[in-house]
Design a protein that fits this description.
This protein has one domain: 5'-nuclease (Rossmann fold, 3-Layer(aba) Sandwich), CATH 3.40.50. It has a two-stranded parallel sheet with strand order 1-2. Helix 4 packs across helix 5. It is mostly helical. It is built from six helices and two strands; from the N terminus they run αβααβααα. 52% of the residues lie in helices and 6% in strands.
Length: 124
């Protein structure tokens, strides 16, 4: 959500990947902010085109699901949602970026972490 909120430019040389469930999660998070009035519908609508415009490869194949299942079991998680991001990092990415400290701590056992600022394009 931070990328959508700030609408920062992604630096050249970065290839973004995410599970296909990202679309549904983004929509759900926006609704969760609009419902209590933390964000207006207009503001939420402005964030969607930014995310849709990112050069983002969405994956959700059987191998990803199997690895996510194993990771969720290994970490004692009750669902595979976060595990899909970690699994995708293991399978396709150089580093995992998250603002969630709990998730970062758990994922650090399995993948390399990177701060979100590494994604940003240098300011011109």
């Amino acid at each position: 959500m931070r990328l959508a909120q700030d609408q920062v430019a992604i630096g050249d040389g970065h290839r973004l990947v995410a599970p296909t469930l990202l679309r549904s999660q983004l929509l759900s998070l926006l609704l969760q902010e609009v419902a209590p009035g933390e964000l207006t519908k207009t503001e939420a609508d402005a964030r969607l085109p930014y995310v849709r415009g990112l050069s983002l490869r969405l994956l959700g194949d059987r191998v990803l699901q199997e690895v996510a299942w194993k990771i969720a079991n290994q970490l004692g998680w009750s669902d595979t949602f976060d595990a899909e991001y970690v699994a995708l990092t293991q399978l396709q990415a150089d580093a995992f970026v998250t603002l969630d400290p709990r998730l970062a701590s758990a994922a650090s056992e399995l993948v390399k972490l990177a701060p979100i600022e590494e994604l940003f394009a240098p300011e011109q």
